[in-house]
Amino acid sequence: xxxxxxxxxxxxxxxxxxxxxxxxxxxxxxxxxxxxxxxxxxxxxxxxxxxxxxxxxxxxxxxxxxxxxxxxxxxxxxxxxxxxxxxxxxxxxxxxxxxxxxxxxxxxxxxxxxxxxxxxxxxxxxxxxxxxxxxxxxxxxxxxxxxxxxxxxxxxxxxxxxxxxxxxxxxxxxxxxxxxxxxxxxxxxxxxxxxxxxxxxxxxxxxxxxxxxxxxxxxxxxxxxxxxxxxxxxxxxxxxxxxxxxxxxxxxxxxxxxxxxxxxx
Amino acid sequence: xxxxxxxxxxxxxxxxxxxxxxxxxxxxxxxxxxxxxxxxxxxxxxxxxxxxxxxxxxxxxxxxxxxxxxxxxxxxxxxxxxxxxxxxxxxxxxxxxxxxxxxxxxxxxxxxxxxxxxxxxxxxxxxxxxxxxxxxxxxxxxxxxxxxxxxxxxxxxxxxxxxxxxxxxxxxxxxxxxxxxxxxxxxxxxxxxxxxxxxxxxxxxxxxxxxxxxxxxxxxxxxxxxxxxxxxxxxxxxxxxxxxxxxxxxxxxxxxxxxxxxxxxxxxxxxxxxxxxxxxxxxxxxxxxxxxxxxxxxxxxxxxxxxxxxxxxxxxxxxxxxxxxxx
Lengths: 265, 327
What we know:
Largest sheet of chain B: 7 strands, parallel
CATH class of chain A: Alpha Beta
Largest sheet of chain A: 9 strands, mixed
Radius of gyration of chain A: 22 Å
Shape of chain A: globular
Distance between the termini of chain B: 46 Å
Helix content of chain B: 25-40%
Helix content of chain A: 25-40%
Number of helices of chain A: 8
Low-confidence stretches of chain A: none
Largest interface: A-B, 87 and 104 residues
CATH topology of chain A: Rossmann fold
Oligomer: heterodimer
Order of helices and strands of chain B: EEEHEHEHHEHEEEEEEEEHEHEHEEH
């Protein structure tokens, strides 16, 4: 079975982030990391591979990302976690892609490399759109099974999984191929072992360009269906009014009066 | 794009406030685009919900009570939405920024070849063109975004950002014809309610969140839930609490969890590290209860009460419940 984990490379959230006032796009300076949500996708893919292996079924885990070639060393971290192989869709003409163009380009790349199961994270840490996984599935014409907390089984052309809902979970089943997005409940992403790190150096990272895909439609800025024309700072918050409460009644009364004053009760 | 279509998310006809916010905003926007406002509700109970939506200034409410919507994952909904969008013509589709709304937005935008802007908190008209205002990067920036003259535009709207106002409604309730020849792949075999009657965290008007200071899972049930219920809100948590296994990850608010902006946010025993801050800093009013006055949340909360949360919360619940009883 061919499992593909799609990951996004994002600026490290612990480093200061900003949107470039000229290009109106995220200034990707500083450290680049794998989108924290997507690390769970890699973890879920590797768990599945492990379970399949225990049942005597062979599978491969491919990392797929759309990012300039300079992100290669970041991708290698995913290989060090245990993925077999990586493909980077890298092309200057992809710059400025919005949700539509990004999902479209990624879908065409995935079509090119082939898959039985696509695993993604739920959200991106930077853009926070959340619409990309389902948009990729729609472009590929495969169903999307989002917010998966546990893959119960994925074998013999079928998948069965638990997905989170607002009030609990659902058990969903259907045929492969399918795209799933996973939540943090799949389990903490594993650390790369020393052996994994050494082994990752020899694992292949293939580059795919737009010339390889021969798309009939423009992507990047020209293909985008939306444009960002303005970036500003949000209105800041002030420091809190601080009240020391000697006992429960005093503290509760202070909050209650405050909520009354703000007309929240 | 001229018309506005509001998607009504519901379960067996029961919906939440965000549906009315979307319907109201659709009614407000449509005249400035030179079009009409419509709503769509599908699945069992849709017709019941349509009666509620008739209190809003909509042209049509398009429904189908098709049981397939509850039987299969989102595909039937996407199909119905496509049918309605194509029959109404160039339009902006408003969806709630919820788990379901985000999925639908991705699918329908790809299907219609439409642009997608997410988590919108304000709309503006500029020379006849629609502009969407949305916070990005965990609220550290605010962007203005527009559609490049595409026929359709898809927008997810942040719950609690727009007001719900009833209007002179004489909306016609129209049954959507079921798309023919479709088969659906993903079957919902089982639906398990773990927190029945739980208000969606992202849509709740009040969120009472707990963190490390609670010390274990029990206080979420014995302290926070009664307060949340008294205030008509929902319970949330910090990452520390979810990582410790005290609450499910579905309650986590912050960078790797949910982003909420309720009119009132009460943070109990939460220090307010950046990880948590990005998930709640756009709340209307933030009240924090902590035993330490030096916590980061002091920098951006409106009120910080320094004291023993185990003593304060039950007293506060009593005061709130008492006030409600006399109201």
